[in-house]
Amino acid sequence: MTQLAKIHKGILRWYSKEARDLPWRRTHNPFRILLSEVMLQQTQVQRVLQKYPEFLKKFPSFDSLARARASSVIRAWRGMGYNNRAVRLRKLAGEITHKYGGKLPRTIRELESLPGIGPYTARAVSCFAFGQRAPVVDTNVHRVLRRILPKETQRRRIWDVAEWALPRRNAYSWNQSLMELGSRICVARNPKCPVCPVEKICPSAFKKHIAFRRNGAAEPGRNGIPNRIYRGRIVETLRDSRRSVKASVLGRRVVSGFREKDEPWLVRLLKGLERDGLVRIHNHRKKTEVSLAR
């Protein structure tokens, strides 16, 4: 048995016994699979487990999501963070409804042509919804492959390694098992090597691992708080209001010690949110008012 075959056997056997019972693993419905993939981007599984059924109850299909008001979708997204995802998902549902009759296309090329769908999501939907043999690489999969196949990942692009490592059968279970292993066992810091199903043959087992941080420019913000936090506060405040809110009132609700001189900065944030399709700005009697996008 080759080393790769041993890795396949060990990880797939572990997954068959230890896989979490997640609702998106009980379906091949394209809308539900796509929704779970979008929700799981930058959001912990436990939070998604709570919001996923709630969102599906309100919007069970691409058609229902496409017909909904933007404000309704944004309100339903409460608590998930990264609110742009809700707007992009609604826009995507509109294109699928009008261009494809409400049915998600099956090929990776067509999926990647849709707004907001990149290489990972296209292949995840292709594999998990349509049963195609396609590699899937997210942060967890990247980490696992880099550790169990260090020589391969040093020589080739990670997507090429994932393609090479993909078993002839059980692509669905293999992709899910790598994500499960990376999420629960082969974590970034202090991986749980003693309980890993391939610790005896993993070249990286029991080695010290450091989670690297990107050294980028400081995020723009105010009073030491990034603008993205204020953007989230603005949307959260507007979710609770069924009417337009004056910019000055909004400022006092989201910024401690808000003053008139801060209003130009606030308006710039609001214009950015409007461009992203999250809010609507109204100029009424020389006063700026804001509401969620319609």
Write up this protein:
A hairpin with a 2-residue loop joins strand 1 and strand 2. Helix 2 crosses helix 3 (45-58). The model has no long low-confidence stretch (mean pLDDT 93). The protein has helices spanning 3-18, 30-40, 45-58, 62-67, 70-76, 84-100, 108-112, 119-130, 139-148, 150-155, 158-165, 171-184, 227-239, 247-254, 263-275, and strands at 221-222, 225-226, 245-246, 279-284, 287-292. The chain is globular. It has two domains: 3-195, Hypothetical protein, domain 2 (Endonuclease III, domain 1), CATH 1.10.340.30; 224-292, Arc Repressor Mutant, subunit A (Orthogonal Bundle), CATH 1.10.10.10. It is mainly alpha-helical.
